[in-house]
Design a protein that fits this description.
Elements (H helix, E strand, L loop, with lengths): L8 H6 L3 H26 L15 H8 L3 H12 L2 E3 L5 E3 L2 H8 L29 H16 L6 H20 L15 H18 L5 H4 L6 H17 L1 H7 L2 H7 L8 H6 L2
Antiparallel strand pairs: 1-2
Helix pairs in contact: 3-10, 7-8, 10-11
């Protein structure tokens, strides 16, 4: 049987050109990807998938999420394949109530995925929604349970009533006033943005003790809502694709590009309020 002389390897390697190193590196990367793709496909091969690509790549999921039609696409997949559908290398989607109850139960053996970190309002700190550790999440939930009951939050109902009155007064004054004899028509009421302004004023009133004044100004203060609307397809894609999510929420990226409390618009402006 022929033997391999490993002593000659340094001589061979020392003769490599930069192009050879690039080819070896590229070949190693391709080999690693093929092996990892086959492994990813094999683990959940028994679950139906909308595309073979979805079995080993997040490309299908990213494209579907970014399209803004994710709900309708997923609904059709469940109608076609049933309650369990594979939509990524490690992602299984379900619409079965019993399965969802089991996953979400208080003593569930399922753990919260890193997907939840994208729910951070402040990207540098966890909130109750983004906590992944089950014990920490349960502790935070128990500590805030009383607040959701409303008994420990002063003037919950009066605070909400004030915003309701502001909304009603705005509609009466600007949109429901009878037309005058000048022939000028009253502006049409676009309930979409107005309901968002109402929601933001209610939330900020309960959270900070006074509303920000979205309804009073009838505008998107700090461009917060517009930023969310414009970024939503990208935010959803970043949440669903693990490697993008891990990169954007890495300490290095946040230090260079993350929002700051000194920002004049967007999330940073609200962080510094």
């Amino acid at each position: 049987m022929a033997s391999i002389n490993f002593n000659s390897l340094p001589v061979v390697i020392s003769g490599f050109t930069p192009a050879t190193y690039c080819l070896v590196g590229l070949g190693s990367l391709v080999l690693w990807y093929i092996v990892s793709a086959v492994y990813a496909w094999y683990r959940l091969r028994n679950f139906p998938a909308p595309s073979f690509i979805a079995s080993f790549s997040h490309l299908w999921l990213a494209r579907t999420t970014y399209s803004g039609k994710q709900y309708w696409v997923h609904r059709e997949l469940h109608r076609k394949y049933g309650p369990l559908v594979r939509i990524g290398p490690n992602e299984i989607m379900t619409d079965e109530p019993e399965i969802i109850k089991k996953i979400s139960s208080a003593r569930s053996s399922y753990h919260r995925d890193a997907w939840y970190i994208t729910g951070r309002f402040n990207p540098y700190h966890d909130n109750m929604f983004s906590l992944q550790d089950t014990a920490s999440h349960s502790k935070a939930k128990s500590r805030t349970a009383a607040a959701y009951g409303g008994r420990d939050v002063p003037a919950v109902e009066p605070g909400i009533d004030d915003q309701v009155n502001t909304l009603v007064e705005l509609i009466r004054r600007k949109y429901a006033t009878p037309a005058t004899g000048t022939g000028q028509r009253q502006p049409l009421l676009d309930l979409g943005p107005l309901s968002c302004y109402f929601t933001m004023d209610v939330i900020t009133r309960l959270a900070f003790g006074h509303e920000f004044g979205y309804l009073k100004e009838e505008t998107d203060l700090y461009r917060f809502l517009g930023g969310v609307r414009d970024l939503w397809p990208r935010m959803s894609t970043c949440a669903d694709v693990p490697w993008i999510r891990n990169f954007l929420f890495s300490p290095a990226f946040l230090k260079l590009m993350g929002p700051k409390s000194t920002d004049k618009n967007g999330f940073g402006a609200l962080m510094g309020y």
